[in-house]
Amino acid sequence: MKNNRPLILISNDDGYSSKGLACLVDMIRDLADILVCAPESGRSGYSCAFSATLPLTIEKKHEEEGLQVWSCNGTPVDCVKMALDNILTRRPDMIIGGINHGDNASVNAHYSGTMGVTFEGCMKYIPSVAFSLCDHNPDADFSLMTPIVRYVTQRVLNEGLPLGVCLNINFPVVEKYNGVKVCRMAKGTWGNETVRCAHPRGYDYYWMVGSYTNDEPEAEDTDNWALQHGYVAITPTQIDVTNYPMIEQMKSWQFPT
Question: Rounded to whole angstroms, how far apart are CA atoms 7 and 37?
């Protein structure tokens, strides 16, 4: 790693050997030195979880000029923490989560390990971005994303992001994008989230599955609408979840003393 080049830390929740991560590295490796530290296998749905009670290990998988790839037995957030504390010799200029196989729009952002990577970087005041493609296929085609991924990466490297703000960027599966929309998170809900199965040994077990419902399908300023209409959806996302109007409203509450 050369100190005179920008440095990007990449992680994900699909595992260090996923196609999405490999394609991301190929897209941007001429823009910066890259260190990958990603889970040894899939960790989808881990959000911001970290291994408070389990020992962690890391293993170098590959190294060449300007690129190192490491795996970790923990969560996506563990990977970021381990890289920052135990692998990197300098602070990265940017952290990227992805490219995720599957979208992280709407409330999915709260469950996503890819967004966990981005939130962790953001909480450490490092400019952070998540890229996701609305395709769960392990052999998905990421090539159409390249110009926008490169543009965003270079712009964030050059200009940074406001403290406490990261970018959640989702790409539809289309032959040609209708454009890019900077939009808000759609209101949505998950239902029918568990499926019960009978085990041959006489007990029940459950799979987490579920179906997503967009609760405001006609709202044209949301990420769900953008994706459904062939647009790339960029949602600026903040760490501070305080509801400031509610603070003002609660000032009138008469609490017992």
Answer: 13
